[in-house]
Amino acid sequence: MPSSKKKQKLQIFDDAGKNLSHLLLYNMLRIRLIEEGIADLYPNQEMRCPVHLCIGQEAIPVGVCSSLESEDIVMGNHRSHGHYLAKGGDLKAMLAEIYGKSTGCSKGVGGSMHLIDLSVNFLGTTPIVASIIPVAVGTAFASWMKNENRVTVIFLGRGATEEGVFAESLNFSALKKLPIVFVSEDNFYSVYSPLSERQPPERDNVAIAKAYGIPGVLGDGNNIQEVYELSRTAIDHARVHKGPYFMEFKTYRWREHCGPYFDNDIGYRDEKEYLQWKERCPIGTFEKKLIESNIIEKQEINQMRQAILQEFEEAVEFAKTSPFPSPENISKNLYKEKDFNLV
Ligand SMILES: Cc1ncc(C[n+]2csc(CCOP(=O)(O)OP(=O)(O)O)c2C)c(N)n1
Ligand SMILES: [Mg+2]
């Protein structure tokens, strides 16, 4: 840092007054580079499960999870690599899972859409849209019954708010004042349908949550600072037993709905829209702010990139050299109490 440059502070502090700027940037960059790495390797056909990448949406998992304690619970959906990593899930186990290996976080039988890491209270993801929302209400209910100070965060796509269980989950969690934070990621699409063709323009999820007595907020999901600040308020609210909180963040997925490529040429959205959102890259815009504020230098960012790429390479090596699950164990771990032999 040249001495002539005065270090300014970008106002992102945790409760202990620690400036989180570097960490937030690192964690977003880590998700980006890992997913770009997955996209690069995917065409080799060694990863045999579908992958839904969250490239472009990284500020939401990072901004939300940075306010959580390790005992807090997170659950996600089909697009959850970012949620898993932001909650501290093990990268090697995630990659091994995507490669279908027995060292994977779901022992190689779940794939990208069934991620779980109990050691960090990442309690799982499921691909059936909205199906996991009431499960998260259940963990919040358990915390409530035990009078714990632990919060459950459930990440859902805005498409999932169309499902009946969303309404039921809001209702029950409001009724019992459960410690749960609903995080809706609004990337404007559900697969290839614009949400404008699926939901009436007047539909306002924050107002819907409020109608249940649940405070809610709409935020810019590409602005890490905003996501972090709003999440702190939401999570603090749930932690002190004031009940649930709802947040919705506008953002944009850069890649195709499912898979490693881009799909702006197939007609449901156009390249111009994508390029406009790319300009608003959550990582690029934050990097620029930090550099202009003399908080970080390009060289430090390059070092971050190198460290992440090295970590990714080692995790890929681990995944590739791990064994596949054996056929006789394939039906194990389907149920907690008993291993049914289904083959
Ligand atoms: C109950 C159900 N219906 C349909 C699908 C097929 N499906 C998979 S992902 C998805 C899109 C969900 O959109 P959204 O919740 O906005 O999440 P995004 O993919 O945009 O992150 C759909 C319809 C499914 N998995 N489950
Ligand atoms: Mg969506």
Structure description:
- The chain has a single domain (21-318), classed as 3-Layer(aba) Sandwich (Rossmann fold).
- The protein is 39% helix and 10% strand.
- It is built from 11 helices and 8 strands.
- It has helices at 21-41, 59-65, 81-86, 91-98, 133-145, 164-176, 205-211, 224-239, 271-279, 282-292, 298-321, and strands at residues 73-76, 122-125, 152-157, 180-186, 189-190, 193-194, 216-220, 245-250.
- The protein has a 6-stranded parallel β-sheet, with helices on both faces.
- Strand 5 and strand 6 form a beta hairpin.
- It binds thiamine diphosphate (TPP) and magnesium ion (MG).
- Thiamine diphosphate binds at residues 78-79, 127-129, 157-160, 187, 189-191, 257.
- Residues 157-159, 187, 189-190 line the site of magnesium ion.
Q: Given the structure, what is the number of helices?
A: 11
Bound molecules: thiamine diphosphate, magnesium ion
Measured as a percent range, the helix fraction is: 25-40%
CATH uppermost class: Alpha Beta
Task: Describe the structure concisely.
The chain has 343 residues and is α/β, with parallel strands linked by helices. Helix content is 39%, strand content 10%.
